[in-house]
Amino acid sequence: MQRYFLYFRYDGTAYHGWQIQPNSNTVQEELQKALSTLLRQETNVTGAGRTDTGVHARMMVAHFDTELTLDCGQLIYRLNRILPHGIAADKAMPVAEDMHARFSAVSRTYHYYIHQHKDPFKRAYSCELFYNLDFDKMNQAAAMLLGYDDFAAFCKSNSDVKTTLCDITEARWIQDDDYSWHFRITANRFLRNMVRAIVGTLVDVGRGRIDIDGFKRIIEGGKRTNAGESMPAKALFLENIEY
Question: Considering 11, 52, 65, 213, which one is annotated as catalytic?
Fold first, then answer.
């Protein structure tokens, strides 16, 4: 039995997230269906993580096992012929049998995009915010995240998680042009809805609704109800996974 890593990307607009679920179209289901068709056998894929409904991935990784010896170049070519337009396979490679798409990953990076000027070409993948934001204060608050490891305050309520501990190694706002910014955050793992909740709380800091000390109290309090709103999914991208 040989294990393969598959690298791919997708536009999450039409999908109810990554993970297979009843009566919903998901990325995992489409990928498994395509692989099973090509390999002529039922093929299960395990992803590096879960993205929520409407969230995108510029890089996602999944593994699958097969007794077949695959030509990886041909596999990618044939996959892209049958996958939906919103999913693109980039590369496949054989890996050691103990490599795991989820558990072997050491870090994941997300970007959240916002713009402050009406732009018809950004509206589908970036969040329009027309009020003034103090990005210096937002970056001061973001830097504080690196000093904590419990992020229960930014975890979706009633989530089925064993721990809310995460190791954040990067969190900062980056200006892309006069009216556009993105928030870049890297950690070993993320909680459900965590990035969008952090961004919503940082936006409140930028609007002056929460001061730096207030942001600190939210983290330390560990209550989701004290943090900001969850931002729209359409502007969130899984950008990178390191192994």
Answer: 52
Q: Taking each helix axis from N to C terminus, what angle separates 212-221 and 194-206, rounded to the nearest 10 degrees?
A: 150
Widest pairwise Cα distance in the chain: 58
- Residue 173's Cβ-side half-sphere holds a number of Cα atoms within 13 Å equal to 25
Active site residue 52: yes
Q: Six-digit token pair at 218?
A: 């939210």
* Res 160 pLDDT > 90: no
Tokens of 112: 């959240």
- Residues in the chain, overall count: 243
Q: Which residues of 10-36 are buried (b: 16+ CB within 10 A; e: fewer)?
A: bbbeebbbbebeeeeebbbbbbbebbe
Phi/psi for 92 (5° steps) reads -135, 150
Q: What is the pTM of this model?
A: 0.95
